[in-house]
Design goal:
The protein has 10 helices and no strands. With 209 residues, the chain is mainly α. The chain has one domain.
Amino acid sequence: MASKVFAVIAGFIVSTINVLGYAGIVVLMAIESACVPLPSEIILPFAGYLVFIKKLQLFYVAMSGATGCVIGSVIAYAVGAYGGRPLIEKYGRYILISRHDLDTADRLFDRFGNMIVFAGRLLPIVRTFISLPAGISKMNFLKFIFYTFVGSFIWSLLIAWIGFKLGEKWHIIGPYFHRFDDLIFASAVVLFAVYLISHLRHVSGEAHH
């Protein structure tokens, strides 16, 4: 099951970049940064492979990735800034987000906002969702854009460079990673279980107030 899901996602990513080139990278990275889990860990290595075969250039791949991240992040930021907190306070318990979580995010962004946005762009999974709490916490918008772009450019350059260096071995990457599909799926289940346990107490408590 996991293998089929990954195959469909990978196929969509590869087709989009093949057809649209740099614009495809912008679109795909914007989708990821708008809180849709479309993995840049597939988008950028394939773009790096296209650099290897001289269909794309590494610098422009990184620029496209960072640009897409900014576009998607602005959307997520706006959701958080203009409707996120009231909406999540009202409906968040249905997706296991509590007011305690939002209060924690506010405190973190008040104190470490710039570094959290920058560092979050360099972390798998975290990078997909970091913009929403940034918006909720009303982080300075220009600083948000700056740190989003810089962090995303570094991430895009690094991951695309890895795809470029793999180069001629690209045809063996897919089968290699498929060996870990079950492990990835099991890890996701475990992490979600931990998330449930750690959040149900706060959510249940708030539902009774």
